[in-house]
Amino acid sequence: MEYPRQITLIQAAGILISTIIGVGVLPLPLFAVRAADAGAPLVTLLAIFLSSVGLALIAVLGKRFPNKTIVQYSEDIIGKWPARIGSILIISFFAVLTALAAREFGEVVITAVLKRTPLEVTVIVMLLLAAVPTRGGMTTFAYIHHFYLPVIVGPALLIVALSLKNAEVLNLQPIWGNEPGGMLQGVLTVAALFQGFFILTIVIPAMRSPGKVLKASFWGIFIAGGLYFLIVVATVSVFGSEETKFLLWPTLELAKTTSLPANILERLDAAFLAIWVTAVFTTLFSSYFLTIHSMSKLFRLRDHKLFALFLLPFVFLLAMLPQNILQMYEIIQIIGRYGLVITIGYPFVLWMIAVIRNKRGDRHGDRETEQSG
């Protein structure tokens, strides 16, 4: 194995949480409300369930092949060349996802904070911040996520809780929405925001107890999904579904209407943006690390350091392709929905074939065995 088994169950769950909670927090309520009006919380719950299915598939595959990543064990399951095509799709998808997340970060910063700063500067700075630490190993990767996790989750939950004092329960009715016909598309769009869970495919081989990966997966999706659900509930209950449709970043507007008790801080949007920047960093860090780590496995290299800065210019160019913020969000939604085929559909196919062919990795080495079960 390339890395010693040093990642604990808590660290694995923390990596999942801080990876899933990212740039998509800002437009999340808008995507959900467009799909089902007041039924936005229900759309979010269904999206969490769909993402949980994908995460469970990855966890089950990881338990069957505890010493290998998806790039490696896919070759054992479906053969070298079909697996390489799948691996190239994974690498390409997460490279694009990294680029779009960096572009979205840049758009928010130049719109809400640094209005005179060129977009290119904000994008390249964030990409550099995410790319440089990826030269470290898996243990360093886990420590960085573990360090930033309380900074992301704690204050975010506090802001959501404080915002509920302005909530109106009637805004959440009917719970299935006025136009449930668009719910399916909304579920896919919101589920796309959870695709960071795919990072688990490279974390499992470094876990001390790969057999506990399902437990780590449960806590990861429960906490991250719970926070997303609370954000949607708070936003819709405060603004109402119709008003939320006219807000580009509803979560940021929610922070603006929230204050600390005794008016210590009348607006929490500045504090929220600081938390959000941290969340964006951890998400970009994970998606970029997943991309270059998968490339190193695909090309059979000893480590991934070669690609850490080599890939950066290409990701930056991809980030600058959208002409404006509206086109960017259209691309994000389309890429995200089709990406579910890679992050949920592909693992499902691998799992089915592994079960049918009775393929399972050796728990004590890299040899393949034909054990039953």
Characteristics:
373 residues, mainly alpha, two-stranded antiparallel sheet, 16 helices, globular, disordered C terminus
Alpha carbon gap, first and last residue: 24 Å
What sort of overall outline do the alpha carbons produce when their principal axes are compared? globular
Percentage of residues in DSSP E strands: under 5%
The H/E string reads HHHHHHHHHHHHHHHHEE
The residue ranges in which pLDDT falls below 50 over 5 or more consecutive positions are: 365-373
Q: Mean of the pLDDT scores?
A: 87
Regarding quaternary structure, how should these chains be classified?
A: single chain
User: What does the main sheet amount to?
Assistant: 2 strands, antiparallel
Q: Based on DSSP secondary structure assignment, what is the total number of beta strands?
A: 2
Radius of gyration: 20 Å
| Class computed from helices, strands and strand pairing | mainly alpha
Helix content: 55-70%
Description:
There is one protein chain. With 373 residues, the chain is an all-alpha fold. Helix content is 68%, strand content 1%. It is built from 16 helices and two strands. Strands 1-2 form a two-stranded antiparallel sheet. The longest helix has 33 residues. It is globular, with a radius of gyration of 20 Å. The C terminus is likely disordered.
